[in-house]
Amino acid sequence: MADENHEREEPIIRDKRRIDPETGEVRKPADSSASDAGVDESGSHFEPLEGPDVETSMPPADDESDAAPEGAAGESEGEGEADAAGDDEPLTVDDILNAAQAEVDEPTSEHLADLKRVTAEYANYRKRTEANREVERERAVGKAVAVLLPVLDDLDRAEKHGDLEGDAPFATIAAKLRGAVEKLGLAPFGEAGEVFDPQRHEAIFQQPSDEVEVDTVADVVETGYYLGSTLLRAAKVVVKTPQ
After folding, report:
1. Residue 203, Cβ density class (10 Å: 0-12 exposed, 13-18 middle, ≥19 buried)
2. 150-171 burial string, b = 16+ CB within 10 Å, else e?
3. pTM score over 0.70
4. C-alpha angle with apex 11: 10 to 12, nearest 5 degrees?
5. Predicted confidence band at 44 (pLDDT cuts at 50, 70, 90)?
6. Domains along the chain?
7. SS in 3 state form for the chain?
8. Which residues contact 141 (CB under 8 A, 6 or more apart)?
């Protein structure tokens, strides 16, 4: 009898469609009782898994014992970095100024030696510069004065002939011209009786004489001139030589 009833049981058909075919509306999910019974929100039927072989999807909680050493290591690294930063602190402007002032107040022997060397080099440089400047000035003035040398030679010849005596107008002009060139640094040289110097004199004629023991200037044909320390023109002279 029981077998007959079992055979007569009709199959159970569950409609899992989310859209109702009659109304066309989305079906609402079942209540919490349906979820507990094994029906999800979509209306699908499922059965919960049980047994020792089933693994849960929840990740295991971190072990507090493992987290503690990691935190301690991070703190130790942070302290080490802080100590290193404290040892290598950048210098401030005040520190640099104080160090410079201390060096000025009490310079080292090495810096003193450098200071003396630089001072000596600067002094030599100034001397060379001033000397070169003076040479260039004399050279420039010499080019201008050299044009007047033939005029000065004519004045010397006129003076030998007595044309510059008294207060004649020509004598006044000659005095003004000579005074002007002397202000520029032009200095004449060459007189009879001087010892002949080949660096300053140019011998145009020689006269043997018993009156001299060394070469001596007997007569000056053209006066020589210095411009400062520069020899502008050698003096042309007649020389007496010992026999």
Report:
1. middle
2. eebeebbeeeeeeebeeeeeeb
3. no
4. 115
5. very low
6. 140-242 (2.30.22.10)
7. CHHHHHHHCCCCCCCCCCECCCCCCECCCCCHHHHHHCECCCCCECCCCCCCCCCCCCCCCCCHHHHHHHHHHHHHHHHHHHHHHHHCCCCCHHHHHHHHHHHHHCCCHHHHHHHHHHHHHHHHHHHHHHHHHHHHHHHHHHHHHHHHHHHHHHHHHHHHCCCCCCCCHHHHHHHHHHHHHHHCCEEEECCCCCECCCCCEEEEEEEEECCCCCCEEEEEEECEEEECCEEEECEEEEEEEEC
8. 184, 185, 227
| Confidence band for 214, pLDDT divided at 50, 70 and 90 | very high
